[in-house]
Automatic annotation (TrEMBL):
InterPro entries: DUF892_YciF-like (IPR010287), Ferritin-like (IPR012347), Ferritin-like_SF (IPR009078), YciF (IPR047114). Keywords: Coiled coil. SUPFAM superfamilies: Ferritin-like. This is Ferritin-like domain-containing protein. It holds the Pfam family DUF892. Residues 46-73 form a coiled coil. The lineage of its organism: Bacteria, Pseudomonadati, Pseudomonadota, Alphaproteobacteria, Hyphomicrobiales.
Amino acid sequence: MGLFSKDIKTMEDMFVHGLQDIYYAENQITKALPKMIDQATNRDLAAGLKAHLEETEKQIGRLEQVFKKLGKEPSATDCPAIDGIIKEANETAGEIADKAVLDAAIVANSQAVEHYEIARYGTLIAWAEELGHDDVVRLLTTNLNEEKAANTKLNNIALRKGVNKKAVA
């Protein structure tokens, strides 16, 4: 089946593994965001990323509550997907000299992260519901809604706040 199949025998195992994956991802994101904030020259983009960093720290706290409600210690498992997205973002940023184009790349790379998180949280919510973990669905749904809102804000920054238009100019 895959790299982790020896540890995953039940749907519950899969659910916990998914939680460990997103827990790792959220922690990696808190490490990556400060660099993106420093690189951003658009004020709205930098402010949005700063706000999302604070939000991500709260999301980590909610995930820790989920682990606790399940009787588990919060733990992470490597997530090659988020590592790849962050690596690509860093490599892309290192190749762009034009600050306006860099801002557009930061938006795009941030949206790749958001889309990954949206997919993960959606799956985890569906699994939690199926497994009868109704006590954690609200916490996961709050995180999902914040990720969707962050994606919408990034769209707004790119399209309405002029990041894409400035990058083209």
